[in-house]
TrEMBL record:
SUPFAM superfamilies: C-terminal effector domain of the bipartite response regulators, CheY-like. SMART domains: REC, Trans_reg_C. Residues 2-116 form the Response regulatory domain. It comes from the Bacteria. Residues 124-222 form the OmpR/PhoB-type domain. It holds the Pfam family Trans_reg_C. The keyword Phosphoprotein applies. The modification 4-aspartylphosphate is found at residue 51. Residues 124-222 bind DNA. This is Response regulator transcription factor. The lineage of its organism: Bacteria, Pseudomonadati, Pseudomonadota, Alphaproteobacteria, Hyphomicrobiales. Gene3D superfamilies: 3.40.50.2300, 6.10.250.690, Winged helix-like DNA-binding domain superfamily/Winged helix DNA-binding domain. The keyword NAD does not apply. Keywords: DNA-binding, Phosphoprotein.
Length: 225
């Protein structure tokens, strides 16, 4: 899962990024609405964490414009504006949830999980391919009922391959999906990640293999018989 954070406090951005990464998710963080908008034009996200007191645009105005533009991803507002009438304004503007500062990191993670469970099935499904099942919201991978222990980056790679099961995923798409802005993955790093994932899957009756399409990318292919 990949999250976008728009928060003008550098210290809070740092703390939230650490919390999100510890939960096993990717996060890109920016300080202004303009940076957030530009990022949304270049990448897809599963969730937006939005501060309302941004330096260049009020968060409510940004939220309204995103909803007017048919941006459907869940939005969790993080703000010091905690009064009831302010919460109502945020929810009416299109927020899916509203968390007043200061808040406990555990509650933030729980609210994110809750939003992902309520997200459209097409966005956060249980991905299935051959005997592999990946419950995206719970970040849980199983095969024939047994859980497969994977690192967060391995789960991200597996998710991408499962979402595109039976079709080739180009290397640039993998590089982008597994990277955060300013920390792009090299082609060699992708090859190593694929190798590690293959080894972990080999110990289970997955009924699938990760096939290398030379010069193009990789494909999750079902093995029959």
């Amino acid at each position: 899962m990949r999250i976008l954070l728009i928060e003008d406090s550098a210290r809070l951005r740092e703390l939230l990024c650490e919390t999100i990464r510890d939960a096993g998710w990717k996060i890109d963080a920016f300080a202004t609405a303009q940076e957030g908008r530009l990022t949304l034009e270049r990448a897809d996200y599963d969730l937006l964490l939005l501060d309302l007191g941004l330096p260049d645009e009020d968060g409510i105005a940004m939220l309204k414009s995103l909803r007017s533009a048919k941006v459907q991803m869940p939005v969790l507002v993080l703000t010091a504006r905690g009064a009831i009438d302010e919460r109502i304004i945020g929810l009416d503007a299109g927020a899916d949830d509203y968390l007043a500062k200061p808040f406990h990191n555990g509650e933030l993670i729980a609210r994110i999980r809750a939003l992902m469970r309520r997200a459209p099935v097409t966005a956060m499904p249980t991905l299935e391919f051959a005997a592999i099942q990946y419950e995206v919201a719970r970040s849980r991978v199983t095969c024939a009922g047994s859980e497969i222990a994977l690192t967060p980056s391995e789960k991200g790679l597996l998710e991408l391959l499962l979402r595109n099961g039976g079709t080739v995923v180009p290397k640039p798409k993998i590089e982008h999906a597994l990277s955060e802005f300013g920390d792009e993955k090299s082609s060699n790093a992708i090859e190593l990640a694929i190798s590690r994932l293959r080894k972990k899957l080999e110990g289970h009756p997955t009924g699938a293999v990760i096939e290398t399409i030379r010069g193009v990318g990789y494909m999750m292919r079902e093995v029959r018989g």
